[in-house]
Amino acid sequence: MQPIQALLKDGLLIFDGAMGTYARLLPDYPPEAVELACLTAPHLVSRIHREYLDAGCRAIKTNTFAAHEGQAPRNAAEQAALIRAAVSIAKEAAGDAAYVFADIGPAPEAEKAAAAYIALADQFSEEGVTHFLFETLPSMAGIPEAAAHIKARCPEAFVMASFAVNPDGISRAGEHARALLLAADACPWLDAMGLNCLCGPTHMKQLLAEVPACSKPLSVMPNAGYPRVAEGRIFYESEPRYYASQLLGCVQAGARIVGGCCGTTPDHIRAVTERITPAVQASPAVAADADQGRPHRRSRILDQLRQGKKPILVELDPPRSADPEAFLSGARLLRQAGADAITIADCPIGRASMDACLLAAKLKREYGIETLPHMTCRDRNINATKALLMGLSMEQVSNVLIVTGDPVPREERDNVKGVFQFNSQVLARLIQSLTDSGAVRPFLICGALNINARNFDAELQKAHRKEESGIAAFLTQPILSRQAVDNIKRARQALKGYLFAGLFPIVSARNARFLQSEVPGMAVDDRVIAAYEGLDRAQGEALARRLCHDAALAVDGFVDGYYIMTPFQRVELVKSILADLRCLR
Questions:
Q1: Please, what's the b/e burial string for 189-222 (b: 16 or more CB within 10 A of its CB; e: otherwise)?
Q2: How would you classify the pairing of strands 233-235 and 228-230?
Q3: Contact between residue 258 and residue 219 where contact means Cβ atoms under 8 Å apart
């Protein structure tokens, strides 16, 4: 058979459809993991391959989607036997009529993805496979390393990467289809890339239209629409001719490789081959610049940072009732005193308060105050988060601080359930993906850095991962110890992002002991606690002002700005600290 690269210059490559969902429709298929049928019922796997080949496809996938050790195969020996059998069955069925692709699903652990992919690829290579499909991927994690390894071992190999995104274009890792496909297009060791699973053909066609022209062939392998559940089983009811008509639209939008994923059957592929032939010439669609004609409303904080200024951010807790007047008054006073932005916590310590994003929008819209709302991953799923981000963009809020979020207090867990669909790194990638796709305007994405962590090496490693996810600035926990100062200096050497030094004006010995004992992420030197003993309110505030000034001086050469937390709504105290910090700028 001619090399796939040559085939794709003049025509299309049609793949098979689903293995797992189709196999479950057959009455004699064994109940265990579908992949294990390569060992227990090879004749049934062969039968499915042949049905797809009879339907007209010219590429089939080995029955190995979940062949990572610990998924379908229980151990390394069973994995090796499974791959050997799967390749043998597929090759025998395909003969000289079709290409056989090693089908490799997403690695169980993103951090170990490269090693997992390489181990599987080596086993396929030992069986003589030279075509590889990494499919249903949430990100590019491990793919460049695996593709480079395959090419080094077999330069003529054909390697594809296919990503799974929802109808809005977002993967479970929070990345947008546009960014994923562009990253794959830029990877020198990949020969083609595309989308599969999660979407029906209509939504996949719409997503493909958002992707700029790519240099490599694009593939689309949608689901057969969306499933329904009946009597504990999942059914897809997409009509094959409709499926084929929508896939033709994908070809007209630029796809050169087509096939099917969950819910598709040989009837779907037959309809595709009858409707779409290699003579069809695709016209790659060039997506319009999503931001064309729309003015960018850039972050004022980011503008100041780029000008070498040191912005001062002040955190003001949101009210715990529907009356915002005290909060709004405090924010206006702090802005007049020199605060460059007001940061607003998102239900601090897991207790309900007025929504930080709504308050941020109100301050920006009605008073022109720059805001930095906190956004936790605790209280909303990815759909709700995306909706909120679009609302913030509409309201011209251009900054967001993302954190995983404090857990719900133990005593409230019977009534309040924490929602943790993703973490701050995934949220950062989601925001970046939404920006890249044009769904929102650019945000300055900020994250937290715990300079009081007992294992600060691990904290720095986490911060590196946050930077890789799109976080551009870090707000630190308060500087209340000598160790915190040292860790700020270490962070400056290790991180690329902007650093805002956290300052918390302790107001009493009782306040200091509470922070030390009951607030996560706080570390207060014993000498600081001792210094507050016996002081009245005025004396305590004077000491708080002095300690904040000293802490700011200690790190002034290592940070890009300051982040003051307002204790107990004591706006006047923070105004005096603002006056001190303005002298440092």
A1: bbbbbbbbbbbbbbbbbebbbbbeebebbbbbbb
A2: antiparallel
A3: yes
Residue 260 corresponds to which tokens in the numbers above?
A: 């099917």
Paired tokens of 469:
């996810």
Q: Output the pLDDT for position 230.
A: 55
Per DSSP, what are the bridge partners of residue 14? 258
For 278: left if phi > 0, alpha if psi spans -120 to 50, otherwise beta; the answer is alpha
Q: Measure the CA–CA gap between 169 and 207, rounded to whole angstroms.
A: 6
CA 251 to each of CA 16, 162, 206, 522, 583: distance values in angstroms, whole numbers, following the listed order? 16, 16, 12, 57, 63
Give dist(CA 305, CA 303) in Å, integer: 5
Cα 193 to Cα 8: distance, rounded to the nearest angstrom: 13
524-574, pLDDT tens digit by residue? Answer: 999 999 999 999 999 999 999 999 999 999 999 999 999 999 999 999 999
Partner residues linked to 544 by β-bridges: none
Total Cβ atoms within 10 A of residue 186:
13
The domains of the chain, with CATH numbers, are 4-275 (3.20.20.330), 309-508+537-582 (3.20.20.220)
Q: Tell me the whole-structure pTM to 2 decimals.
A: 0.63
* Structure tokens that stand for 267 in this block: 């009837």
- Do 437 and 409 form a contact (C-beta atoms < 8 A)? no
HSE of 94, CA atoms in CB hemisphere, 13 A: 21
CA distance 103 to 272: 21
